[in-house]
Automatic annotation (TrEMBL):
GO biological process assignments: methylation
Keyword Repressor part of the UniProt annotation: no
Protein name: 5-methyltetrahydropteroyltriglutamate--homocysteine S-methyltransferase
Keywords: Methyltransferase, Transferase
NCBIfam families named in the record: PRK06520.1 (NF005085)
Taxonomic source organism: Halobacillus naozhouensis
Amino acid sequence: MNQSQTFIRRTLKTSLPPFHADHVGSLLRSQRIEQARLQKGSGEINAVELRAIENAEITRIVEKQKEIGLKAVTDGEFRRAWWHFDFLEGLDGVTGFVPEKGIEFHNTVTKAYGVKVTGKIDFTDHPMLEDYKFLHSIAGSHTAKFTIPSPNMLFFRGKNQEEIYNTTEEFIHDLTQAYKKAIHAFYEAGCRYLQLDDTAWSVFFSENGPSLIQSWGFEPEELSTIFAKMINDAVADRPDDMNITMHICRGNFQSSYASSGGYDAVSETIFNGLHIDGLFLEYDDDRSGSFEPLRHAKRSDLQIVLGVITSKFGELEDRESIKRRIEEASQYVDLNQLCLSPQCGFASTEEGNLITEEEQWDKLGQVVTIARDVWG
């Protein structure tokens, strides 16, 4: 399907995601989930009992999302400890391990965990297929949205690739082929709204990004080409009625961040070179730069989701201020191509951001209310 056909399809069927009021996906783990995980770890309950509790809590939060007025519902990533590692270690040839230290964030660090390549990468089965099927079964008339890390994340965070693969090209080939299989498997399970989460692009945003990239043995333009190719190859054969978006993030751990900087350095690639249907972009504070890079968005079929409401802190933004920010962005992109969401999820890891569950729901309700005021 070419870009003009996609735009016509979107124009005729305005119910396609991403929606004018949307959200990134992860939600604060409930106390019941946290307790059940501890009980599972101590042997008080087994895996079947844990899953039953997860099912009940996911059903509860899905109903809450519907009640708020969101069209897309997620499972809140309630079955995961990490937004990326849980999926990646479910791929053939990828194994979780405990490194010497965690991932560094501004003024904090995560617990130590990571993934490494221990064999040829493939996708033959994955536990998250069953996770999606359960979400699909309770979504009803709402759209079941599922989130997985971008293939760039294994390239970016994975270890040991060079011991398994002779060349970067061989590694990329197997990785993108595995993702193609994954996308089709989720489609067969009923998924029509899939989101790729990606923090790898943030390496291009910061001032020290170019030198860091060169220390890895790449030039910035070379690496951005690799990142774009991995995404485009992965989604190349997706069915026409499957919408795939991408969330570009600068890190989200317990209300902290990992990097800063605007989209300028790779804006043309991000806005015109990725064959996806929508982009979820962080714009909740000065770390993300201005809306000016949006001027490079020349595709009329690309929806841009403005993350101008923060998930990091509980205080509600002023509605009129948010509307003014949407209006400012519309100077670069047609208003009907814009959508609204929090800048990130509320719990990219099981620890969650420093915000209460009530504040979380208030934030999402604010998204819906403002979107109705702006787009009707």
